[in-house]
Amino acid sequence: MNITTDTDAANRLFIDDLATALPETSTDDLARLSDRLSAAADRHHLLDVSYRSVDSPLGPLLVAATSAGLVRVAFEREDHEAVLAGLAASISPRILRSGRRTDVVAGQLDEYFAGRRRTFDLTIDLRLVSGFRRTVISHLRDIAYGATATYAGVAAATGNPKAVRAVGSACSHNPVPLVIPCHRVVRSDGGVGQYLGGVEAKTSLLAMEAAA
Amino acid sequence: MTVEPFEKVVAEHGPVVLRVCRAMLGPVDADDAWSETFLAAMRRYPDLHPGSNVRGWLVTIAHRKAIDQIRRRHRAPRPAGDLPETTALDVMPEPPDEHLRSALAALTDQQRWAIVAHHLAGLPYAEVGRLLDISETAARRSAADGIAKLRTTYLIPAPTRGTDR
Q1: Which residues of chain B have pLDDT under 50?
Q2: A207 near B CB under 8 A
Q3: CATH number of A27-113, picked from 1.10.10, 3.30.160, 3.40.30, 3.40.50
Q4: Among A8, A143, B29, B62, which is most exposed with the fewest C-beta within 10 angstroms?
Q5: Alpha-carbon gap: A168 to the closest alpha carbon of chain B (Å)
């Protein structure tokens, strides 16, 4: 019995030593390997969604893209973890943090917030919206920088003048706010209206564009 | 039942997979095996059964990729004029983990896998056995046999014992 116990104890010591004989894995190593993985995944057409975070005056933004284009811009208040879980469920769980496809979006957003860009030159993937909402959101792309439209006006432009509430609902489901400017849609009575990023964010965006 | 974004899988299990690869391979080959492991896993990830043991699944792939690397290395033609590997081993001082790798390589697949999966990756013996299609007892015995053999073939380098400083 004692012999077994001694052997067990010696084995345990040996196993502990074995673990310490291995080189430590550093966060640098893992960052380097992750970059390599996203490059290889892209090459093998396995990177269904890539995303990154972008600092902005409105707080950190999540930017996500598929091979078809920019698919999602999310404000911090939408909870980025929840947004990513939603993309995993609705598009694909093959999601990696990567600057592939998203660095160009980050660059244009930076320019926009710095007042150096008035239109976005990006391919957009609107797969997350369908039907009337998609029609409305596509229409919003025509509202120029510094201009505004009313919910009623957008409803009329889509050929459904009575669908004012549905237009409001479509705006609140815009998957790519800022890039498709739903913040430029305001109420007929002069009120700012709701915004995914918060009413304050909408007010400051409109003020920024009006001042430029 | 939603599947997590793959990024979370990489963040959570990347370090343990790298540890497994490094126990079995040199730094360059370990990087390759790590990349191949996650690329293969990403390919199959959407079909992974919900509730699967993701760590066990990844460590299994990593072990297989590491063995592929070892076989490939032995097959790879060496440039003319290069010293044969055995001579290099005799002459050059090797880093301590290189000794560990050769000692691990000398075990049976089942012994090595049991040690790597249980002692390095932290999988319980029941899971190790399930992945190997053997009983928990057999998995435990394989690891113990492997450790016993390692103790005769692998001398742990003195500085790592931590008593001499």
Answers
A1: 1, 81-94, 160-165
A2: no
A3: 3.30.160
A4: A8
A5: 29
Residues of chain A with CATH 1.10.10.10: 131-211
**Cβ contacts (< 8 Å) between A40 and chain B: which residues?**
35, 39
Contact B156, A21 (CB under 8 A): yes
**How is A111-152 classified by DSSP, letter by letter?**
HHHTT--SS----B--TT--HHHHHHHHHHTTSPTT--EEHH
Q: Write out residues 59-118 of A within 8 Å (CB-CB) of B.
A: 84-85, 87-89, 92-97
| CB-based contact A20 B7, cutoff 8 Å | no
pLDDT in tens, A55-111: 999 999 999 999 999 999 999 999 999 999 999 999 999 999 999 899 999 999 999
Q: Do A88 and B5 touch (CB under 8 A)?
A: yes
User: Which residue has 């996650």 as its token pair?
Assistant: B38
What's the pTM? Answer: 0.84
Q: Please tell me the predicted confidence (pLDDT) of residue A55.
A: 97
Choose among B2, B27, B147: nearest Cβ to A11: B147
Domains along chain B? Answer: 6-77+94-153 (1.20.140.160)
Residues of chain A with CATH 3.30.160: 27-113
| pLDDT at residue number B95 | 55
B80/chain A closest Cα distance in angstroms = 31
The full DSSP string for A98-119 is: -STTTHHHHHHHHHHHTT--SS
Tell me the pLDDT band of A202, cut-offs 50, 70 and 90: very high
CA B3 to chain A, closest CA, distance in angstroms equals 6
The CATH class for the domain spanning A131-211 reads mainly alpha
Compute the residue count for chain B. Answer: 165
Instruction: State the complex-level ipTM.
Output: 0.88
Could you tell me which residues are beta bridge partners of residue A70? A65, A124
Residue B119 is nearest to which of A18, A25, A92, comparing CB atoms?
A: A18
Task: Point out the residue among B18, B23, B160 whose CB comes nearest to the CB of A20.
Answer: B160
